[in-house]
Specification:
Layout (H helix, E strand, L loop, with lengths): L10 E4 L5 E5 L4 E6 L2 E4 L2 E2 L5 E2 L2 E3 L25 E4 L4 E8 L10 E10 L2 E10 L5 E2 L3 E3 L1 E3 L8 E2 L2 E2 L1 H5 L3 E3 L3 E5 L6 E6 L3 E5 L12 E7 L14 E2 L4 E10 L3
Antiparallel strand pairs: 1-2, 2-3, 3-4, 5-6, 7-13, 8-9, 9-10, 10-11, 11-23, 12-22, 14-21, 15-16, 15-18, 17-20, 18-19, 19-23, 20-21
């Protein structure tokens, strides 16, 4: 991921429960600790790139049909965003989507409200269409979860998803999902509007899968299907759409 010269420093938020949130204004990239345990981490992938949790908007994945001229996951992840605070536990990220101005409808703004409190992280993503035409959006968050003992054996709702991770698979999410990654405490991911998760792990030049993280990426619509550009993905002019998810430490 790129860095921008002269960009403001990251914002750091912490509380007495051992929760910590770091938000970089470049790309709204985040790192998260809950209860003194690293949950969303910065990693060096096998391909040599640095992986950090970041937003994917207005598209998740590639613009396969080439109708809108959008880059993979959209540009916000590499652009300077505006960060403001609300109290001591919330960071507000705002960004105007100006991707592909000759093809993608202009006037869409995204706001993320990132909150930590008592062992819980919440991300609320709102897209507001202030333009003159409807705009397709499939927003998501590319989450890099720490995997201290490797990703193999990861469970979601009691099901081993190892093979699905290795096959880069999108799965439907329940309203509440129990995640068990080897070496981490049990986590609960609740969501509304982020109806799918993309499962992924990188690969190095020798063809080996990376082993110290796993990507479980909440996204509004199935990125492997025909959601983006469909009527369901459209936000009419003057309208907005919100999705949110929370990651919590399960009760011990």
């Amino acid at each position: 991921m790129t860095e921008l010269a002269g960009a403001p420093p990251p914002t750091e938020t912490r509380n007495p429960h051992g929760d910590y949130l770091r938000v970089n204004p470049v790309g709204a990239r985040i790192e998260l600790i809950l209860g003194n345990t690293p949950i969303l981490t910065s990693v060096i992938r096998g391909d040599g790139k640095t992986g950090v949790t970041h937003p994917c908007t207005p598209i998740f994945g590639p613009d396969t049909k080439g109708l809108y001229g959008l880059s993979q996951h959209g540009n916000m992840r590499n652009e300077l965003c505006e960060l403001t605070g609300a109290g001591n536990d919330t960071v507000i990220v705002t960004h105007n989507i100006t991707d592909s101005p000759d093809k993608y409808p202009q006037g869409v703004r995204v706001e993320q409200r990132l909150n930590i409190g008592n062992g819980t992280f919440t991300l609320r993503m709102t897209h507001v269409n202030g333009g003159e035409t409807e705009a397709p959006v499939n927003g998501g968050e590319h989450c890099y979860f720490a995997a201290p003992q490797g990703y193999r054996g990861t469970l979601i709702n009691g099901n081993d998803i190892t093979s699905l991770i290795e096959a880069d698979t999108a799965i439907p999410l329940e309203a509440s999902n129990v995640i068990k990654i080897p070496g981490l405490p049990e986590l609960v991911l609740t969501q509304e509007g982020f109806n799918f998760a993309m499962l992924w792990v990188g690969i190095n030049a020798q063809g080996q899968k990376d082993g110290d993280y796993v990507c479980i990426e909440p996204v509004e619509g199935d990125p492997s299907g025909q959601y983006f550009g469909s009527s369901e993905s459209m936000i009419p002019p003057g309208d907005e759409r919100t999705a949110h998810f929370s990651i919590s430490l399960a009760e011990q």
